[in-house]
Amino acid sequence: MKRHRLVSLALIALASLISAHSNVDDFLAKYNRLGQQEYYDDSVASWSVAVNLDDKSLPEIAAKADANIAGWEQMMAAQAATQFGDLKSINDTSKKRQLKMIQRVGVKLNSADTIRLSTLLINMTNVYNKNRICPWSKVSRAPNCSVPHEHWWRSDPEMFDRISHSRDYDELAYVWTAWRNISALNKAYFQQYVEMSNKGARQGGFKDTGDYWRSLFESDDLKDMMDQKFQEVLPLYEELYTYIRRKLLAQYPGRFETSAIPAHILGNMWAQDWSDIGDFTAPFPNIATVDITEQMVTQGYTPLKMFQTADAFFQSLGLIKMNDEFWKNSMMVQPQNRSVVCHPSAWDFRNGQDFRIKMCTQVNMANLLIVHHEMGHIEYYMQYAKQPLSFREGANPGFHEAIGDTIALSVVTPQHLQEIGLLNSTSSYEQDINFLFKQALRKVAFLPSGYLIDLWRWSVFDGTYNSSTYNTGWWDLRTKYQGIVPPNNRPVDAFDAGSKYHVISGTPYIRYFFSHIAQFQFYKAMCKAANQTDALYKCDFFNSKEAGDLLSRMLQLGGSLPWPQAMQKITGQQNLDAGAMFEYFEPLQDWLRNENMKAGDCYGWGYTWPDAVMKNLNTPRCGLTLDQ
Ligand code: X8Z
Ligand code: ZN
């Protein structure tokens, strides 16, 4: 009798275990089946707006589609919570992780509020992409508003181009300021967006939107980790900065005196990538250029050819090639008859087939690198397309940003550019330093700017900055971390952070800071797999199936494991490590240090860092005048 009872108890337990399991399987199968269609429909609606900002009927459709997907996600999250509770009874780690992700809604708003939030974002996008300014006249050296409106300058490409290529201090200041006058139009929308987004994050169980965004990294110490990485790379940034400041003082004599650099003369609207002032700052100006723009134009490169060039590189590693849908549906050229969102992006429509890039491609080297960046996203999408829906993400958002850039580190080597006929020059010490310098203008210059954008936004979301301190807070950080100052006094109602696309589009940014360090780790690991033994910065893994295999094994994981395990898979390390970046730039850092010492320049821009940071920085320090 006793034995009988035991057996039947065991049978009941077994039966409930099996039923819990089949419940989980059924639930996940349903989630994946329905989700593909739900996400696809929403992507189609968002894409339609992004490629046509002039059709007034589209925003409403897109906002409703957003509300629809939000409602569906919330429903599935609620069902998962009701059926499986705290997940303690689920032993399978993969299924448990999927359910955990399904339960995390992030921004949880009702339908009407979701529509409000989406509409605010679309309104900001319209302001960003549609406003024009009077062109600058080289003759009168002033804005000329008498030309027809269709000849006025758009943000992309005209304003961004002028900031990159004009060397007229006053024209630069005009365009820089005019663009920020437009950005200020978004301040009120942004303030409402912050409130609505925070409301959703709180309803979703987070402290605020910044808290939710950080959770995507699954690292409790993300803030500290990022701060520590910034401190590590600061000496390298300062070395580059000190050199560049000297060159700028020579280029624009008497135009600025402070130890910090005016933000508008660094060749980029946001002073985040300085490669467009590489011409007059190059270490060895008489050595052949490492910029291939001219060659691309001479050889008749088109946007399509740029995409094909990138695709060929991915294929040479044995990676997945871009599919027919990609070539058919992507937007590679800016339409001339309507406004679009020009900021480059890569889209996963989540049906396993439809992947697209949207980019207003111009034929130049910078854009060739961006094409690789975007294709890296598509490659990741395709590699993890067989994963369940909730794992179709990067190991963390920073991984996603790093893939195309890792490939591009190989593509830009003079060795590779020579191989594909875009550069004809032999390697020399001078050329190597010029090359590394140009790379530093892209990668090292970016670091503080990549770090501070979300420092600012985290402080906006947690209430440290409010709408009356948005701008002063922004400039405090820009000066503290980047060493730049605005070219003129900023109006009280200015909203200069809104000049950056990611701020007005609600796209988190710390991912790019993470990526700018991680990509050198990935690159080094792939170089090793390709048996490249020369200096790291010379490594080109073109054609290496071993390098491709190593990368794809990591890419296929998607978000199925916490990122340190994905990092382990490709690099053998579990952490973010700036070592590979330092190794890459070592010859340049030595060269810069020597130059800066010879010139007797002071370091920094007058900010006093805590002792622990200061002890790693070079001396002499520039006058300690700034507030701490
Ligand atoms: O936004 C981008 C990509 C799209 S994910 C073009 N990037 C950041 C930026 O432009 O600010 C790439 C580097 C940093
Ligand atoms: Zn990207």
Automatic annotation (TrEMBL):
Single GO cellular component term: plasma membrane
Glycosylated residues in this chain: N52, N575
Binding site for chloride: R511
Manner of cofactor binding, per the entry note: Binds 1 zinc ion per subunit.
InterPro entries tied to this protein: Peptidase_M2
Chain residues that bind Zn(2+) 2: H373, H377, E401
Enzyme class label: hydrolase
Catalyses which reaction(s): Release of a C-terminal dipeptide, oligopeptide-|-Xaa-Yaa, when Xaa is not Pro, and Yaa is neither Asp nor Glu. Thus, conversion of angiotensin I to angiotensin II, with increase in vasoconstrictor activity, but no action on angiotensin II
Organism domain of life: Eukaryota
Residues that, per the record, bind Zn(2+) 1: H373, H377, E401
Keyword Nucleotide-binding among record annotations: no
Family assignment from sequence similarity: Belongs to the peptidase M2 family.
Protein name: Angiotensin-converting enzyme
Organism of this sequence: Plectus sambesii
